[in-house]
């Protein structure tokens, strides 16, 4: 049996971490954008005499210690008494660790594919398993619930899907420019002193956005958040300022990666492209906002 | 400016009403199915000197007293100081009052279209307005939040979108047969003594389904609920029994309408069609489950 799933990449514009001993209650407040590119997951399940679970990233098998979240998720949802071969192929449109929610995308795609195949758990029961292991292994706090909802989202209550609350902003005519520049481990930032400043600035950004829920406000408060927390600085800030010159809305930093994002309308695309060429930036993505729920379906077989 | 929205028809399989003085906390527990047919809404907005709001059902203008919910919703979301002509055209794939969530579909489609056009409220703020007027005018308790989520759904916590919780069951290969037979005003049933029996049987059905969340279980508990509450009886029950003869899952009654629904796979469609012909039932619908969120977009103009 072959299952295929798609989970959008999720970029965070600003956030407030909410830690909790119960991983289902832990999460984040904040806002972000789900992209039309992300993680494609292919799962093959064959019954057999022994239990084996294999995971591959972009076609290359990975060891258990390099895919702890997805292995934990798979082990929890696959029944204890199952024997057979399960292969989980995860393909990422963006690099790992750059702030695109790949670990959550892989975990959520894995658990939804297996839940679809096994039909023993509900959607929320499955999604909560992905959230739990993301939180326990510090992959992220809010990506899973944001990816479940899609769109340009505001997280107004922290927690796992079914516990937290995610809202959406209406928008029209915008594409997303994403420029992955480097890694910034979530874990490192969340364990540092910057967290207090993040909480203060994140709450301010959230209140401003909720009182005037427009994408223009989102980009303004996102940029303020990223500069005031000191996360957007140095070379990355210089690049953001260059991009600002050709777009009507401010660009900002992807939380948490050394990456920049911006919203642009159709007639700004060419200007953005030639600027990035001038800056010798070769890797960038222009995609749509993904406004639907993650997809999961049987693959390469009749639909019945 | 022209906006187009689609909200799926929502049929309830079983439910537990949860009344509350605060309409945002009122709602229902239960389970149901969102259909690929439903309500199409077209909204035209033109600024002008006077404020006029017009609503039409299936192309025919309706008076305020015949579309109280949609008029209330429109009046609440349109800013007090707006002047101009707003036309709201609602087209229903199913008849009104037969249990397909038309009033919620019209209200939700109206409010999402206007929120998309005005861009001053979030998705949940808008959807809560639809839920509130549905509850206040006894259109229904759980349709709006179910339609927001899509799919084959289980309502595990009552309330408006953003307050209640909706889960989904994974399924594969099923289409939905819907047979609208007559009206059954929600208001009449909710004001009667049957409510206590509905609560008892509804809770039992919900617990059974949550402990084994499969569509096969859903149809079994739905049928038990509809017979034990006495809602499915007489001629309607006879028709359900006839339909059962050609399908592998039990059919059941749509809450609340004099209507029948069933899940059928591809190779049961022809058998169902000829049976309905034998029974001289001319109006029936075979549709897909709608698994996405309601759509709303600018209509007949460039997307930018």
TrEMBL record, chains A, B:
Q: Where is the GHMP kinase N-terminal domain?
A: 85-151
The signal peptide, as residue positions, is none
Q: Which Pfam families match?
A: GHMP_kinases_N
Entry's EC annotation: 2.7.1.169
- GO BP of this protein: coenzyme A biosynthetic process
* Protein's pathway: Cofactor biosynthesis; coenzyme A biosynthesis
Instruction: Tell me its family.
Output: Belongs to the GHMP kinase family. PoK subfamily.
Q: Report the catalytic activity.
A: (R)-pantoate + ATP = (R)-4-phosphopantoate + ADP + H(+)
Annotated organism of origin: Thermococcus aggregans
This protein's UniProt keywords: ATP-binding, Coenzyme A biosynthesis, Kinase, Nucleotide-binding, Transferase
What's a single GO MF annotation on this record?
Answer: kinase activity
Q: What does this protein do?
A: Phosphorylates (R)-pantoate to form (R)-4-phosphopantoate in the CoA biosynthesis pathway.
* This protein's name: Pantoate kinase
Taxon lineage: Archaea, Methanobacteriati, Methanobacteriota, Thermococci, Thermococcales
